[in-house]
Design goal:
58% of the residues lie in helices and 10% in strands. The chain has 730 residues and is an alpha/beta fold. It has an 8-stranded mixed sheet with strand order 7-14-13-8-12-9-11-10, sandwiched between helices. Strands 2-3-1-6 form a 4-stranded antiparallel sheet. The chain has a two-stranded antiparallel ribbon with strand order 4-5. A hairpin with a 5-residue loop joins strand 4 and strand 5 (215-217). Helix 2 (23-43) runs antiparallel to helix 13, helix 4 (91-100) packs across helix 6 (112-121) and helix 8 (221-255) runs antiparallel to helix 12 (302-392).
């Protein structure tokens, strides 16, 4: 939540900053667009309005041919209102206005079409899809003409609507009449089908509709046939059951062995009396034999043998009786099957006859229902035809005119307040949009983040806009605090006391490089450093102007002639600050700078001074700055705020690094602290620490401040005592 709040605040600040930076452009755009709107409004012709107000009544669909599934309540109302608005603007409505008011002649136009175009261009028909209210407005330079044309359009719309509605009613009647004739033809055809189906079904008397879809006739034919069919079906079932029983009994007897047959004789229920008697004798003989054997008689005993003979004889009688019974079953089974087949054949015929009669009844019922439906439809269609015919005589204008147009005393167009308001809004929007577009297209360095993001080096100081030469100002200058911050940051980037040679570069001319070096030298000298400022810009030197000295004798003379160092070093009015002018401009400045003499010079002055500052020409223009960046211990880049493109700034850094130089940071110069809110804290910081704004009313510096100054003076190499020209330093 905090991150989102911070992002929102940052975006709001960025937006406000763009507006502040481009405020002049926004104001100019606003004034130009607003002025253009005011001029256009002034030169536009004054037009008066003729206004007719009406309420559209809710109407059903104009053409309603008969449809049992249609909605008779009317069409969708918003679409109906839209249609009426379009109808008012159609040529069919407006041409009668052109002719009745003779607009072609009055406007001196070549044709009716041109007059129609002019009429439509000044006509405005408005309506609300949520209400019934519709207005007709016409604009003209003559108020009477505007009112007359608006009233004429409303009257033409009324006439046209009645004409169209009447034609639509007649079309509707014709269509419904055709549908009635078609339905009558269908009814005759359906009646013929009904009569034919009635004859086929044999219906001669009354009939009623029974349960479901079954038709039950009053005649006795169908009832008799159904009764006969049911009786035969029952007899078929009985015969089939008998056949199944006989087949089961026959199958059972055939499967039994003689012994099983005798054992189950009582369960078979054979109709032969001798069979039952012989079975009883057989069982008695078997019982006697078992008794004799149990008494110890053997199989060869005469009594046992006599019983065996009787048992065998009785067994033969039983099997003969079973065979006779089986033969009887076969005869009965054959007779039962024959009866079953006969009954089934008769039942199928009866069933087919009954089903055929039911189909005929259904066909008849369908034909009769169709006739009834057609009759009902014809009744509705005739009623519809009657209603439409009556409606043809009762057609009326579907709108109520609440107010006719009257000539107005004041013009309605142009709407001066509205036009000016729109001009102001458009001007403001255009100005803001243009500001943001230019800000987007501007790739220059705008913030500290731009420097650190593209270069990966820190910003050593932010120098306000309009800073002059500090040593020329009288009293305390709050802008000097920026250079004190720069001095401190440089000290922190020095790896050792021997790393005391600093050169400054820039991408192009006018970045404020020389001014930055002069003020930095002044602040360092104030801090107790012995400072040597060398003007190594042998192309277009300017440093000598800051100290009001001549540049005819200086660095170039020392590098090309055998003279002493003290002969080219000038002591400035600023205590501890020495200056070496550029000297006469040589033909090959890069050559003499890239010499052993220059290397020896830098080595010599580094040992004599606490800090050596070398001013150089723009690095992207000439090679001199690259040579100096290689020979110096540290390199500082000066970038003017909102001037140098970011990719050019990157090239500056790459150029320094390519020759072995070390970029310690960037000075963001010429920053408008008053307009750039992100730097506004610098202004308050400088003002807060101004001696003119003491904290406690005592104008004297505090002991803490004295200790701070002494500490700053002690930073770096041991300082030498300031000397006169050619004195202790040399």
């Amino acid at each position: 939540m905090n991150d989102s709040g911070s992002d929102l605040q940052r975006h709001a600040t960025d937006t406000f900053q763009v507006i502040r930076n481009r405020f002049g452009l926004i104001v100019l755009s606003f004034i130009l667009v607003f002025a253009a709107a005011a001029i256009l409004t002034y030169i536009m012709p004054r037009k008066y309005r003729g206004r007719v107000e009406m309420v559209i009544e809710r109407q059903p669909n104009a053409i309603r041919v008969f449809d049992r599934n249609s909605d008779s309540t009317g069409g969708f109302w918003p679409e109906y209102i839209k249609t009426q608005i379009e109808t008012i603007s159609k040529p069919e409505t407006l041409y009668p206005v052109v002719d009745s008011l003779k607009l072609q002649k009055a406007w001196e136009l070549p044709s009716r079409q041109v007059a129609l175009g002019r009429l439509r261009s000044n006509l405005d028909v408005q309506g609300s899809l949520r209400s019934d209210f519709v207005t007709i407005e016409y604009y003209d330079q003559d108020p009477k003409i505007a009112a007359d044309i608006a009233n004429a359009v409303a009257e033409s719309y009324k006439t046209q609507h009645i004409k169209v509605a009447s034609e639509q009613k007649r079309q509707s009647l014709d269509i419904i009449g055709e549908q009635i004739a078609d339905q009558e033809a269908k009814r005759r055809s359906a009646q013929e089908r009904e009569l034919e189906a009635k004859k086929k079904a044999g219906i001669v008397g009354d009939w009623i509709v029974g349960g479901g879809s079954t038709l039950q006739a009053g005649a006795e034919i169908r009832g008799d046939k159904e009764q006969t069919f049911m009786s035969r079906e029952q007899r078929v079932l009985q015969a089939d059951s008998e056949v199944r029983q006989l087949e089961s009994e026959q199958e059972l007897i055939n499967k039994l062995s003689p012994d099983e047959l005798i054992a189950r004789a009582s369960a078979l229920k054979l109709d032969n009396p001798g069979f039952i008697t012989n079975v009883a004798k057989y069982q008695d003989f078997v019982g006697q034999r078992v008794g004799l054997m149990g008494n110890g008689l053997g199989k060869k005993h005469p009594l046992v043998l006599g019983l065996d003979s009787q048992i065998e004889t009785t067994r033969g009688f039983i099997l003969d009786a079973a065979r006779e019974h089986v033969a009887g079953l076969e005869g009965r089974l054959a007779a039962a099957k024959s009866t079953l087949e006969s009954l089934r054949s008769g039942s199928e015929e009866a069933k087919a006859e009954v089903m055929n009669m039911s189909a005929l009844y259904k066909e008849y019922k369908s034909a009769k229902d169709e006739v009834a439906l057609i009759e009902a439809t014809l009744i509705q269609m005739r009623q519809k035809f009657f209603d439409e015919d009556a409606g043809l005589k009762l057609i009326k204008f579907p709108a109520t005119i609440h107010a006719t147009a009257e000539p107005e005393s004041r013009p309605a167009k142009p709407n001066i307040p509205l036009n000016l308001a729109l001009g102001g809004v458009l001007g403001l929007m255009f100005g803001v949009g243009l500001a943001f577009f230019l800000e987007y297209m501007d790739t220059s360095v705008k913030s500290l983040d731009d420097v650190e993001k593209f270069l990966g080096v820190p910003v050593l100081a932010v120098v306000p806009k309009g800073v002059g030469i500090l040593h020329r100002s009288s009293g305390f200058n709050p802008d000097s605090e920026a250079y004190r911050i720069l001095r401190t940051n440089i000290e922190f980037h020095r790896k050792s006391a021997d790393s005391n040679c600093l050169t400054v570069v820039s991408g192009g001319a006018g970045e404020g490089k020389s001014t930055t070096m002069a003020n930095l030298a002044y602040v360092c000298a104030q801090g107790g450093y012995n400072v040597l400022l060398i003007d190594a810009d042998l192309r277009r030197p300017s440093m000598h102007r800051h100290f009001d000295v001549s540049h005819t004798h200086g660095l170039s003379n020392y590098l090309t002639q055998n003279i002493r160092l003290e002969d080219v070093v000038v002591r400035t009015p600023v205590e501890n600050l020495y200056f070496m002018p550029s000297g006469l401009l040589p033909a090959d400045s890069a050559g003499i700078l890239n010499s052993q003499r220059m290397v020896d010079l830098i080595t010599d002055v580094k040992s004599r001074f606490d800090l050596v500052l070398i001013d150089s020409p723009p690095i992207l223009g000439v090679s001199d700055a690259s040579v100096l960046a290689n020979e110096a211990d540290m390199t500082m880049i000066v970038v003017q705020h909102r001037k140098l493109p970011r990719h050019m700034l990157l090239r500056v850094k790459q150029t320094v690094e390519n020759v072995g130089g070390k970029v310690i940071g960037v000075v963001l110069n010429n920053v408008d602290l008053a307009s750039d809110a992100q730097y506004s804290y610098y202004t308050s910081y400088y003002t807060y620490y101004s001696p003119n704004n003491p904290v406690s009313g005592d104008a004297k510096p505090s002991r803490r401040k004295k200790r701070k100054q002494a500490t700053v003076a002690d930073v770096g190499a041991p300082m030498q005592q300031p000397a006169q020209h050619g004195g202790d330093v040399f």
